[in-house]
Amino acid sequence: LLSLELISLPSYMLTALGRGKSGVEASLKYFLFGSTVTAVMIFGWSLLYSATGTFDFTSSAFIDQLTQNAEPTAYLASALIIAGLLFKVSAVPFHLWAPDTYQAASAAIAAFFSTVPKLAGLAVLAKILLAFHLFGQSPVPFAAIVGVLSMASITLGNVGALRQKHAKRLMAYSSIAQAGFLLLALVPFDQSGLNALQFYSAVYLVMNFATFYVIGQFEHHQNVQTVEDFSGRAGASWALALVITTGLIALIGLPPTGGFMAKLFLFSSLWSSTSVSPTLRLVFLILGLLNTVVALFYYLKIPYYLFVKDRQDKPKSLSWELQGVLSVLLALALLVAFVLPGLLMGWINKTTFVL
Fold first, then answer.
1. What total number of domains does the chain contain?
2. Distance CA 60, CA 134 (A)
3. Predicted TM-score (pTM) of this structure
């Protein structure tokens, strides 16, 4: 909890950094939401501590105390803690803060929001869910609940993104949908699911940073705010235009990018899972694939305007910086992750997800 708050507290201040009134408003909204959720999580942890006398939720003694003495308390406390972590992940139904915050923040800070707190919250959530599941003491169908929440996040994120015209707001809804896919990796509750989660997280970090970097460059140097503002700007920097296109294709989950392999591992682990019924597995798989198709319609808006739409005046060229070289390297990393996925998965297999 302390580590998560050490990530969140700077985020509240960064939102307002140099963005005027809109930044302050978004920062205040983010702070109020975050403070409330933190209080809810603290209350949940206090309930667990009062019932068990320990914060070591991975120990067998902790689980025994819950199942023997405080099942109703455990359910309430678990719900409160998981609700707080879903806020950190920006998953449905605790996602309302994301669009306004992303839009008001700079692209660099929005890239931070969409990755670091999300992945940190997801790691804690995975540890909690796996701790309850591995000891096999809880009758609560955690896998099915997580699956439903993931489908809700993916669907609402995609539907929300379809209606967006502002580039960073579109990416905010995209991050909600991506949170759903990350949650879906927790449904199998086995090693293959954890491997898929780590692979997806690593690829998501790369494709998100690459995409937000290019959005930030166009925003800073050419005052690009909306998707339509990208019209005919590929000529400003063909390299950056190709970088953002690669990043967006990876976010969809199409070849030849690491995003395709990430979703392939994710859906494969889900299909072989025994934690939910075959019917639920099939429903989750079909909805996940359908949402991937839906994502095509908003992720490809920016490349469409960049390369297909014309503009009357010639856009100013964007000067190259060190960060520009790094963004190209990120795009190349996405291509390598498609050609050589075993390289990353080999490193993941050598690691242990410590409870």
1. 1
2. 10
3. 0.91
